[in-house]
């Protein structure tokens, strides 16, 4: 949490930061908590150990870290911070597209004399985003904002969404086979649900263009990681940028070494100085509302108030 907002919260409540995210640690700490602020996965039975919990606030957007069905059953209100990291995630996706299409580090002159010819030759193999097709899986707040930026860059954009009527102007609604077969770049920005878990499997990857790029800012489980690594190693995919992973932090054996077309980042797409301040400010606002006996401004499960 941003230091200024942590200080503001501390003026109104005794703040306890969990020393780790192990289930037993969280179960013990929640027993005396009035409010729970979440940035790590909660055990499925966490609420069974809460004696006086008034509510939960997600310091972020995705609520798959929280056992929502149990919260609903116990009438525990949950809030999140919609839109707080939209700009950060969109900029990450654009940055990843540029990195995999036209890596400036690979073109940068380390020796202005000796590198000149080699770097110019390397530029012949780079690609523009202009006129390429972007396919977005999950065209919600983040996907919609990304679509508008991509259109401004001259890209063609199609989207896979449950609500095609909400797509931004210029974005065509397509089904899954069409999106993965047509797109030069696929961005996964969907929530993790039973329908999206494992949706990018070996067959889906095989249907993609051999120079297509895959960018995942959703959840690691949306992609069959083993199948993706096989496609990259066999040269059947142009590259991938993964900000989310099956296991976090990443274990040593999750990815093969020395895959030049694989960009790995530690779940930071939504983290910038600006987004952390916005998330923290919104989180503290919601906690204080709860402590005053008010309703959340951004409830995820508003039905618990009924």
Q: Would you kindly provide a written description of the structure presented here, covering whatever features stand out?
A:
The chain has helices at residues 3-10, 23-30, 68-73, 86-101, 104-107, 116-123, 141-152, 176-182, 202-206, 225-233, 273-291, and strands spanning 35-38, 55-58, 78-79, 133-137, 156-160, 171-173, 185-188, 213-216, 239-242, 262-264. With 306 residues, the protein is α/β, with parallel strands linked by helices. It has a seven-stranded parallel β-sheet with strand order 6-5-4-7-8-9-10, with helices on both faces.
Give the helix/strand layout.
Blueprint: H1 3-10, H2 23-30, E1 35-38, E2 55-58, H3 68-73, E3 78-79, H4 86-101, H5 104-107, H6 116-123, E4 133-137, H7 141-152, E5 156-160, E6 171-173, H8 176-182, E7 185-188, H9 202-206, E8 213-216, H10 225-233, E9 239-242, E10 262-264, H11 273-291
Parallel strand pairs: 1-2, 2-3, 4-5, 4-7, 5-6, 7-8, 8-9, 9-10
Helix pairs in contact: 1-11, 4-7
The first-to-last residue Cα distance is: 31 Å
Average residue-wise pLDDT: 95
Using only CA atoms, what is the Rg? 21 Å
Helix tally? Answer: 11
What ranges have pLDDT less than 50 throughout 5 or more consecutive residues?
A: none
Biggest pleated sheet:
7 strands, parallel
Helix content: 25-40%
Give the DSSP E fraction (strand runs of 2 or more residues). Answer: 5-15%
* Strand and helix order: HHEEHEHHHEHEEHEHEHEEH
What structural class do helix, strand and pairing data support?
alpha/beta
Instruction: Work out the number of β strands.
Output: 10
Strand order within the widest beta sheet: 6-5-4-7-8-9-10
Q: Based on CA inertia axes, which overall geometry fits?
A: globular
